[in-house]
Automatic annotation (TrEMBL):
Name of protein: Luciferase
Top-level taxon in the UniProt lineage: Bacteria
InterPro entries: Bact_Lucif_Oxidored, CmoO-like, Luciferase-like_dom, Luciferase-like_sf
Domain called Luciferase-like: residue spans: 16-298
SUPFAM superfamilies cross-referenced by the UniProt entry: Bacterial luciferase-like
Gene3D superfamilies: Luciferase-like domain
Residues spanning the signal sequence: none
Listed GO CC annotations: cytosol
Sequence intervals crossing the membrane: none
Family per similarity comment: To bacterial alkanal monooxygenase alpha and beta chains.
Molecular functions (GO terms): oxidoreductase activity, acting on paired donors, with incorporation or reduction of molecular oxygen
Length: 329
């Protein structure tokens, strides 16, 4: 089978593993980042979440610096910064600082959701509904690329640095905004697959070229777990299922080791709820996943694939990413 000739990247939620703490989770993230950097992955993005003891990446800009310091060439960024939680000037300064430290290696992905529950969103003291999201995106673009020396407010560092901005989303709104602003579009198909095909179709149809992006660029984030056999991969995937089940139950359980029988853990309703969200989840042997991934890329004509992978064991996770990289040119 021919190799897939598009970039492959990584999304890391920095999950906290059962029996460990946030420090251990960041050490694991750093080791994985170094591994995929050596393999030639394109990006390593970290996601902003709040009020969840199972995810350690709440201070996303800080985590990006930690990963960038440990790597050599891979682009490190946010997948994403949840803009309703932040003042655009502060985001511009944070990412301007990161880009000054690691020139040409920083990406800024922006999301409209708060990345948490309504109570925590209120505690963050920002616009919970995200109604001014586009206005804030434009303001952020101004600080990073369009500001003038005569402006009374400028971002230092960040002024004029043109740090790549991406719009992240899982809806038609994000597709329309990405197209209207001429920005690359990253779709969260790893947890919200329902609108994927409609959203990227609309994005391509309505895209307006800009100084940031000459033509549409679609990054699809998916889940993938690869092992030597289908059976082993599906066994490893039970950690992913338990992680997703914890989200459904809202009990924020830490990443758990794999189990032999998920039916002893979830109800039929919970099983259906988890499986409904795994339309773009690829689990199996190298041969199985390579075939399915190639079909996915060809069918949707995506420009880049980003992998999220909730595997409990460090070596098994590294091996899965090694196998995935081998599928790409």
């Amino acid at each position: 089978m021919n190799k897939i000739n598009i970039p492959i990247s990584v999304l890391d939620l920095v999950p906290v593993r059962e029996g460990q703490d946030a420090h251990d989770a960041f050490v694991r993230a750093r080791e994985l980042a170094k591994h995929v950097d050596d393999l030639g992955y394109t990006r390593y993005w970290l996601a902003e979440h709040h009020n969840s003891r199972s995810i350690a990446s709440s201070a996303t800009a800080v985590a990006i610096g930690y990963i960038a310091e440990a790597t050599k060439q891979i682009r490190v960024g946010s997948g994403g910064v949840m803009l309703p939680n932040h003042v655009p000037l502060v985001v511009a300064e944070q990412f301007g600082t990161l880009n000054a430290m690691y020139p040409g290696r920083i990406d800024l992905g922006l999301g409209r959701a708060p990345g948490t529950d309504p109570f925590t969103a209120r505690a963050l003291r920002r616009n919970i509904a995200g109604e001014d999201f586009e206005e804030n995106v434009v303001e952020l673009q101004h600080y990073l690329g369009e500001a003038k020396e005569t402006d009374s407010v400028r971002a230092y560092p960040g002024f004029g640095e043109q740090i790549p901005i991406w719009i992240l989303g899982s809806s038609m709104f994000s597709a329309e905004l990405s197209a209207r602003r001429g920005l690359p579009y990253a779709f969260a198909s790893h947890f919200a697959p329902d609108y994927f095909t409609r959203a990227i179709k609309l994005y391509r149809e309505q895209f307006k070229p800009s100084e940031y992006c000459e033509k549409p660029y679609v990054l699809a984030c998916i889940n993938a777990i690869v092992a030597d056999t289908d059976e082993e991969a599906h066994y490893l995937a039970t950690s992913f299922y338990q992680f997703f089940l914890s989200i459904i139950r809202r009990d924020h359980q830490l990443l758990k080791p794999p189990v032999k029988n998920m039916d002893e853990i979830w109800s039929p309703f919970e099983r259906d709820a988890v499986m409904q969200q795994r339309q773009y989840t690829f689990i199996g042997s190298k041969e199985t996943v390579a075939k399915e991934l190639q079909a996915f890329v060809e069918e949707n004509s995506v420009d880049e694939v980003m992998i999220s992978s909730s595997i409990y064991d460090d070596e098994a996770r590294k091996y899965s990413f090694t196998c995935l990289r081998d599928m790409f040119a």
